[in-house]
Amino acid sequence: MATMDYRSLLVHVDDGSRDAYLDLAARLALRFGAELAATYLVPTRELTPFTSALLPDAVVAHRMHDTGDAQARAEIRFRELVIRHGLDKSSFTAPAGRAVDAAIAHARCADLCLLAQPRGDDAHAGFASGLAHAVIMQSGRPALVAPYAGASADIGRRVLVAWKDVRESARAVADALPFLVDAEEVAVVRIVTPDAEADAPHAGADVVAWLALHGVRASLRHEVAEDVDAGNLILSRAADLSSDLIVMGAYSRPRLSEVVLGGVTRLMLQSMTVPVLMSH
Q1: CB-count exposure of residue 196 (10 Å: 0-12, 13-18, 19+)
Q2: SS3 string of the chain?
Q3: Cα dist. 203→86, 207, 241 in Å?
Q4: For residues 192 and 160, is the Cβ–Cβ distance under 8 A?
Q5: Which residue ranges form the domains of the chain, and what is each CATH number?
Q6: Tens digit of pLDDT for each residue in 213-230?
Q7: Do 279 and 142 meet the contact criterion of CB atoms below 8 Å apart?
Q8: Spatial CB neighbours of 194, under 8 Å, sequence gap ≥ 6
Q9: Distance CA 157, CA 38 (A)
């Protein structure tokens, strides 16, 4: 059975996008024969007509000039990247309006979204974290989050699938198939609480069998941990197995009228050491 590749790859760029992050996006586009679409989104305050009327003309002109210069520099870097990697299909956009809404809208028309891990010491860490949260939880598309420490040149050769018997995990595994069919080693790590393990000690074999139908040879490991420890356990096993990609569902929990990231998902975004493909 043929597995659909990623044909469109969306990468979020801003004024501080690192070369390693952009290079990863270009390498993935080449690998899958995908169009690489860059979307320039930064946390700027919208200059409304009302605000402009209250500010001196020189201030308005200076702010617009600075914004335009930063966008132009980002586009030049991206165009140079495209030429350097010999990409046939690419685009660069800087959509107007609320950045988070634009990110969600563009992500919904991509096969895979590439985001950079939010950095705690970055001046715009809150914006980056909110944007990642929105794309992962609201776009309906898988997101590949790259660690700010960098990633290997050819990710997805040794993949850890963090499996739970829930919808989000099933969605993530299906969304990651283009990586999984090319992987040299896939380890499905089923993480359960002590009570769940006692109830279903052999659960998890079905997903391994389903992967085999797609030509993916995967091993199955059972790990017992409380929910609070699951994120650290995933990171520990990824290190033990020398994994260069983690695939997992992105989980949420309600808080009043808001949906916030679950503890494991939030920990992975904060502490990842290898790229993480998440789906909700």
Answers
A1: middle
A2: CCCCCCCEEEEEECCCCCHHHHHHHHHHHHHHCCEEEEEECCCCCCCCHHHHHHCCHHHHHHHHHHHHHHHHHHHHHHHHHHHHHCCCCEEEECCCCCHHHHHHHHHCCCCEEEEECCCCCCCCHHHHHHHHHHHHHHCCCCEEEECCCCCCCCCCCEEEEEECCCHHHHHHHHHCHHHHCCCCEEEEEEEECHHHHHHCCCCCHHHHHHHHHCCCCEEEEEEECCHHHHHHHHHHHHHHCCCCEEEEECCEEEECCEEEECHHHHHHHHHCCCCEEEEC
A3: 45, 9, 21
A4: no
A5: 8-146 (3.40.50.620), 158-279 (3.40.50.620)
A6: 999 999 999 888 766 678
A7: yes
A8: 224, 226
A9: 25
Please enumerate in sequence order all residues whose Cβ is within 8 A of that of 100, keeping only pairs 6 or more positions apart, or say none.
130, 131, 134
Place of tokens 């996008």: 17
pLDDT (tens digit per residue) in 270-280 = 889 899 999 99
- For position 3, what pLDDT does the model report? 53
For the record, the structure tokens of 215 come out as 């030509």
- Amino acid occupying residue 163: W
β pairing state of 158-163 and 143-146: unpaired
Residue 159's contacts (CB-CB under 8 Å, 6 or more residues apart) are: 176, 179, 180, 183, 185, 186, 187, 243, 244, 245, 246, 247
Q: Which two tokens stand for residue 37?
A: 């679409």
Facing residues of 90 across strands?
36
Torsion of CA 173, 114, 136, 131, to 10 degrees: 170
Our CA dihedral for 109, 110, 111, 117, rounded to 10 degrees, sits at: -130
pTM of the model: 0.85
Q: Give Cβ neighbours of residue 145 (< 8 Å, ≥ 6 apart).
A: 115, 116, 117, 132, 136, 269, 272, 275, 276, 277, 278
